[in-house]
Amino acid sequence: MHSATIRTAIRGPLLAVAIVVIFAGTALATAANGFHGTILAHGTNGDTVQVNDGDIKFQTKAAVDFVSATVTIDPLGSSGWHSHPGIVLVTVASGAVSFYQADCSVIVHPAGTSFVESDGDTGLARNESTTTTAVVYVTYVVPAGTPNSGLRIDQLNPGCPQS
Prior knowledge:
The protein is of the alpha+beta class. The protein has one helix spanning about 5-30; strands at about 35-45, 50-55, 55-60, 65-80, 80-85, 85-95, 95-100, 105-110, 115, 125, 135-145, 155. The chain folds into two domains: about 1-30; about 30-155, Jelly Rolls, CATH 2.60.120.
């Protein structure tokens, strides 16, 4: 066989395997269920920011978008496994949210508490109540130009029993 024929014979099956892996990952990603977000505002801060005010330090190295949203989580609703392209500040307004990390650990956040999700961290937010709706207020700080559809990145279940 000629080397070009061998390369073609190998390339076809490798391409098929790559396509199967890509589509399998998409099919295995966990979708949100009973998780309803409403964007309230989306604005761009074109200036870099460096603020150090006592116990608070906030810094950006380029333009960023601030996106404010309200999320309602139905009883037993779930965000599905996901990550975000930047920093997410979450305040639980009512109900409680159980936030599962990729190591399957969980922290329960009752009304009146806040938590942070950060770039690249995979997690799952779930309302464990069978009767009470949870409401959270969310502020995303993401790279400038991030579309609303890109605020959440579906991820595979890292092997935890929650889905």
